[in-house]
Amino acid sequence: MATAAKKIAEIQRPTKGVKPDMKGVPGELISLNGLNLVFGRGAKPSPYDALLDQLAATALSAPGQVLRFSDMRAKPSIYARAKKKGMRVSFAEDAGLLYVRYDGSTEDDTRTTRREQILHALKLGPLNGIRIATKLREAGDAAVDAQLVERILEQLLRDNAGIKREGGEWALNPRGAKH
Fold first, then answer.
1. Which residues contact 27 (CB under 8 A, 6 or more apart)?
2. What whole-number distance in Å separates Cα of residue 107 and Cα of residue 105?
3. Rounded to an integer, what is the distance from CA 106 to the centroid of its chain?
4. Which residues pair with 170 in a beta bridge?
5. What is the pLDDT of residues 3-56, one digit of tens each?
6. Does one domain contain both 56 and 91?
7. Count of domains forming the chain
8. Is the dihedral of CA 30, 34, 39, 42 positive or negative?
9. Cα(49)–Cα(53) distance, rounded to whole angstroms?
């Protein structure tokens, strides 16, 4: 009776994993001449690489160019590829179509250009952080928001280039640093 229970326990015990194939797959040594291969970790080419490169190349010569895709499912893949290529892109949707705009390279010095754009906006008159952020977005900086503008304005205040007025508006300091 003990042997019957032992056999049942062996049959009911789950088998872990799969036995490895120790035979392997046949292979051969060949020359790389004439083969167009990409080696490396994660070096899989994407169907969007060529389009993103073309968009970046035409952004300087024809700034009004965007990519258009008929399927919204392309958005995560395009974002991931653009990030790997060091590109900043923004997206728009209209009638089920996806539009991609090139916003520059991640290596661009956006910190100084944002500061200069904020100073330029303040030259026109006192503004609050939300209005300044809106002006920067209209100028093409899609990654800026009101909180970021407020932090930059606080830095300008420390540098004596800006002053904060009542009501949350900011203006240039007439006696402050050169601007």
1. none
2. 5
3. 8
4. 127, 164
5. 666 666 565 565 666 665 566 556 666 677 777 766 666 566 777 888 888 888
6. yes
7. 2
8. negative
9. 6
Domain boundary (65, 86, 105) is at 105
Residue 100 sits at φ, ψ, to 5 deg, of -125, 125
Q: Tell me if residue 113 falls in helix, strand or coil.
A: helix
> How many C-beta atoms lie closer than 10 Å to residue 146's C-beta?
14
Nearest to 97 by CA among 73, 69, 66: 69
Whether 149 contacts 136, CB under 8 Å: yes
Task: List, for residues 161-177, the tens digit of each pLDDT value.
Answer: 777 777 777 777 776 65
pTM: 0.43
Higher pLDDT, 87 or 161: 87
- Host domain of residue 92: 49-105
Side-chain-side CA neighbours of residue 120 (13 Å):
10
Q: Which two tokens stand for residue 110?
A: 């956006």
Q: What values do phi and psi take at 104, rounded to 5? A: 115, -175
